[in-house]
Amino acid sequence: MPAATEVTIAPAGLNGDLTIPNRATGIVVFAHGSGSSRHSGRNRFVARVLQDAGFATLLMDLLTEDEEEVDRRTAHLRFDIPLLAARLSQATDWLTTEHSTSGLRVGYFGASTGAAAALIAAAQGPERVGAVVSRGGRPDLAQRALRHVVAPTLLIVGSLDAGVIELNEEAFAELRCEKHLVIVPGAGHLFEESGTLEQVIDLARDWFVSRFTGETPR
Known about the structure:
alpha/beta, single chain, Rossmann fold, about 220 residues, 6 helices, eight-stranded mixed beta sheet
């Protein structure tokens, strides 16, 4: 598996780690949740499995270093969903201009508030985004954008994440695209319980494989 390459994403100057396996069939851009970063162990675990399945991955920070410093004091920017969605759209634009990724279809993997940003960005760029997966997400924060999402969308939530289950169910009802909602038994918000993150990974991998390649996962 090739090593990740550190990249700077214009125009905001966002930091990212880009990994491109041989003969990649698409690229998955990760949108982390509030207070997290591209160094999230859970997202890196998911990324490695997706790379093994033939997908390029982009783990990126949605805020600049200066913004991160401000956010550590105020915890404000991490909840600015329109800003985070705009950053995802900028990253998608950047990928289309890079020689190594310009021919790859784009998918989003969002967690917590990052899932809302992913859905808004998907609604704003329907011709560019081929699939969306939300892990323990807050798709309800995408609000009016939900009805405009075209990309097939998978919502994954833990059975112990009671309040978030209801929010996902409400958002699921608003979506008009191909969609699926999975509640993982025995999982909390962060899927830290034994075996639960592995279930998320299997679901996400199969969703991207089937929507990007048309193959039925084994």
